[in-house]
Amino acid sequence: MAARIDIPLASLTAKPAGAPAGRDASPAHARSFYIETFGCQMNAHDSEKVAGLLLARGYRQVESPESAEMVLFNTCSIREKAAQKVFTRLNDFRGPRGQSKIVGVLGCVAQQEGERIFERAPWVRMVCGSASYRNLPELLAEIEAGDTRVTGLNLDTAETFETEVTRRDNPFRAYLTVIEGCDYACSYCVVPHTRGPQRSRASDAVLDEVRHLVQNGFTEVQLLGQTVNSYRDPSAAGMNFAQLLRAVAAVVGIRRVRFTTSHPNDFTPEIVHAIDSTPALCDHIHLPVQSGSNRVLKQMRRTYSRAEYLEKIEWIRAAQRRSSVTTDIIVGFPGETDPEFAETISLLDEVKFDGVFAFKYSPRPNTTAKDMTDPVPEEVKSQRLAFLQQRQREIQISRNQTFLGSEFEVLVDGRHESRGQWSGRTTSNRIVNFASPAENLLGQYCQVKITGAGPNSLVGEQCG
Ligand code: 5AD
Ligand code: SF4
Q1: 407-462, which class in CATH?
Q2: Class level of CATH domain 309-401
Q3: 16-33 pLDDT, tens per residue?
Q4: 72, 114, 137, 416: least CB-packed within 10 angstroms?
Q5: Same CATH fold, 309-401 and 172-282?
């Protein structure tokens, strides 16, 4: 690819050196756009790439929809509530407010609902799913030429979305997609339908981007994919995911490499060995289990059993480094019984995850679970979710207590003015709030000694 440009968020102090001048770089007469993102990190990074593409076309990014000529919503449809939010937001642009603007819907709701969006919200002018972002320049050209409605809904793609210009929202951590789409077919999940088949980027393109990020001042990168560890290098180098991790960590100037999300089925001992022997690979693994019951896992089509999942946890626990492990759980999958839910709780007790994202099952269009009979009342599902969250909170409190007195390296990414504290993350992705007399630590690596622990964060004092 030709020269890459990364445009950092201009307002943050620790601007990577040598980068171009941020949002103000576009001429004042350029068309303005506003982009609002819902959902996961993949979406957040897609928005960065879409923003970069628009900036390269001479558009100017603005912070509010009021001052924008083009308003884009990058949407999420993983659960019903998320998808509903988009239509509520679109309704804000019904009537005169939306008439003078080009309103566009991108991402998963765009792909899922397609042209039906024009029926529900006729003031929308552009509908484009993430598998069609490569066609955005043509869609924009059509809009600029005055076409009233444009669509990009092709799912049948082998291509990945790469841009020469990316507008980076986070000045300390750069996101990087290494694999798009998903070839699994979990019965509850809409992603294979909204993001299309799995396709990996060539390793040399990934490594080029990492080197470029280092030149622009980034020291931490996060590799992204719905099933990031299913990575298969399509180029002659033929790297698997563990090899890609080692190669990214070996780029001079890279201090931290994160990755998310891993699928248990493609999680190998080689990945654990890579983390154990490569300090720049972060000791945090997000490994969604979804349920502790074999029957439910089978119904979910997760392709592994409880015992197979636990074996992977054993590999992680047997390593030298004490990696943190986080997971996703769905409660109230159709037909989940009380004893089956109890198996999920016993799995939490057994693994003692460092963090859990728990969701109540939400039926989605184009999924096989949608048609399963579901005798579990909504109220029971809510009770199960609350019970699980409370149990996990207790686990996290006692787990975090074990860090009292330990020292961690923290990359500082925020400041709590009212508490007079800095905030940052350890390599294991724990949040640490700490006191320091220093004037500005943003973007710096500090040693912090832990003096307090809550369920979701640690407290400490700078010690180096
Ligand atoms: N209902 C509830 N949660 C879901 N997830 C995916 N699909 C659904 C659904 N239909 C959760 C899974 C996944 C996370 C990103 O969202 O736990 O790992
Ligand atoms: Fe959805 Fe399953 Fe693919 Fe994850 S692995 S994106 S849950 S289909």
Answers
A1: mainly beta
A2: alpha beta
A3: 333 333 444 445 556 999
A4: 416
A5: yes
